[in-house]
Amino acid sequence: MAGPNYGAVGGTFKIVRILQAVSLIAIIGMAANFISEMVQNNNTPSDVLVGTLSVTCIAVIYCALTYILFIDNILPFLITTGMDGMLLIALIVVAVVVGKPLSYVNCQIIGTSSVAESAARLSYELRQGFENHGEKVTYSNWIGAKKSICLEMKAVWGLSIALCILFAFSAACSVCLWRRSKTATSKEVGA
User: Fold this and answer.
1) What are phi and psi of 37, to 5 degrees?
2) DSSP letter at 41?
3) Distance between CA atoms of 27 and 49, rounded to whole angstroms?
4) Long-range contacts of 2-6 (CB under 8 A, 24+ apart)
5) Distance (Å, whole) CA 19 – CA 60
6) Given a cut of 60, is residue 118 above it in pLDDT?
7) Would you say 40 and 126 are in contact if contact means Cβ atoms under 8 Å apart?
8) What is the mean pLDDT of the chain?
9) Cα–Cα dist 190/142, whole Å
10) Which residues, 6+ apart, have CB-to-CB distance to 183 below 8 Å?
11) Sign of the dihedral defined by the CA atoms of residues 41, 144, 24, 91, in that order
12) Which of 11, 59, 172, 188 is the most exposed place for a label (fewest CB within 10 A)?
């Protein structure tokens, strides 16, 4: 299962794809868990979480397919570069949308007495949302409901940022691999 010999760039491409898949699967698990909790409380899940889950599901399927095609030496590198770029843009949007309210939240103080008033208000609003079955859960309220939720959402945010870096890197690797395969094909034709 070694695949084609593209040297260090090919090895790097495979490692980056594996890291992308692991990060995406972690995000899918956390986002799906949050959506499940919201649905179990008869509420409509947050658009932020549904969007995050949609983008990451598409991306993990893409990663699996491109990894298989790379191993079989039939991956169209130029198209892969474009697709990596498009997924990079989608993941930047996810990172910004997920991170915008999170950047203002200190997870360590959620549930402490120093912020009891704001936490009580937030908790009240969240409970009201849960009691009014069928209402849409507000993402900014959801992340401040419990310390564990806040920390998990910060993990999703961090993984989203890491995925932006990984997809930019895999796009650069794809360009190098395309150039290398084009050069190798030119030498074979000339020989």
Assistant:
1) -60, -40
2) T
3) 10
4) 2/71, 3/70, 3/71, 3/72, 3/73, 4/70, 4/71, 4/73, 6/177, 6/180, 6/181
5) 11
6) no
7) no
8) 86
9) 62
10) none
11) positive
12) 188
Who contacts 149 (Cβ-Cβ below 8 Å, separation ≥6)?
34, 142, 143
Q: What is the pLDDT of residues 66-81, one digit of tens each?
A: 999 999 999 999 999 9
pLDDT at position 162 over 90? yes
pLDDT (0 to 100) of residue 6: 86
**This prediction's pTM:** 0.83
Structure tokens at 109: 């103080």
Token pair of 21 as six digits: 């898949």
Where helices occur in 72-146 by DSSP H, the ranges are 77-102, 116-131, 139-143
As a residue count, the chain comes to: 191
Bridge partners of 44, per DSSP, are 136
* The two three-digit tokens of residue 14, written as one number: 């495979």
Region 122-143 average pLDDT: 65
